[in-house]
Amino acid sequence: MSSNLLSVINKTMPSFSKGQKMIANYILTHYDKAAFMTAARLGQTVGVSESTVVRFATEIGCEGYPGLQKALQEMIRNRLTAVQRMEVTNNLLGDADVLQKVIQTDLEAVKNTLESVDRAAFESSVKAIIAAKRIYMIGVRSASALAHFLNFYFSHIFDNVHNVETSSTGAIYEQLVRAGPGDVFIGITFSRYSSRTYRAATFAKKNGATVIAITDSKDAPICRVADYILVAKSDMASFVDSLVAPLSLTNALIVAIGIEKREEISAIYTRLEAIWDENDVYQKAEPDG
Length: 289
Description:
Layout: H1 5-12, H2 18-34, H3 39-46, H4 50-59, H5 64-76, H6 82-93, H7 98-116, H8 119-131, E1 135-139, H9 144-157, E2 161-163, H10 169-176, E3 184-188, H11 195-206, E4 210-215, E5 228-231, H12 244-260, H13 262-278
Parallel strand pairs: 1-2, 1-3, 3-4, 4-5
Helix pairs in contact: 3-4, 4-5, 7-12, 8-12, 9-12, 10-11
C-alpha cells in the first residue's frame, strides 16, 4: 500500500468522520513526521483520541496502526534529508534515555531481520558466492564499512575477491569491466540509496553476473536487478545509519560460507597464525598477577 497510500486517503476522505478528516489532513501535509509518531502522539497532535487514530488506520485498509506507520515509512524511505532525519530523531527521543533507546532499537532491528529474512535467498547466495569465478562487492558512503568488513574476511577465504572502489563513476566501471557469467556482484545499499551502487549492479547484471542485494527493503532500487535479495532492517529515523542488523546478516553470510569451506579455511588460518606470530601482528595479553 505504501506507493499509493496518500491517494487512498484522498479518495476515502468524503466518508471520514470529522476526527478522521483531521488525521487525514495532517498525514497528507506532514506524512514525514506522522510516519514516526505513535498512535497516541498522532492523536494528541491533531486533537483526537488514540482509538480514533487506530480506527482510521483500519478504515484505509492497513493492519492496524503499525501497518499505517510501516506504509508511511516505506513511502518516505528514500526522501528524508539528513536535516529531516535529525528532526525526526529529536522528536522520537526527546528526553528519553538515548543509550537505552538506541540499543533497544538496534536489538529490535536484528530480531525483525531474523524473522523476515528470505532463508532460500540466503542459502542460494551462499552457494552462488562459493561457486563464483570472481566476487565483486560495493558499498558507498556509510555502507562502505560493510563492504570493507566483507572484503576483509572474503579475502582470507577466496583469491578472487574485488572490493570496488567508488572514488568516481568511471573507476567503478573500469573495475567491473571483466564481470560476467559465473561471477557474483554483491551490492550493499540502504536508504538513502546510492545511485552508484544501483548503476554498478545494473552494469554487472547486464554483463551476466549474478547480483546479490543486501539492503533494507524489497522496494530498494537495486532489487530491480538482483537475483537474490537479503533484507536487513535498518533504523532510518536517526540521522546516523544503523548498521547493526546489516552487519549481523553479513556476519552470518561469512560464517555460513566458512562452514561450507571449513577444511580449506582451517588450512589458510593455520598458515596465517604462523605468519602473524612471526611478524608480531598481534600484541599478546600479559597474564594477570
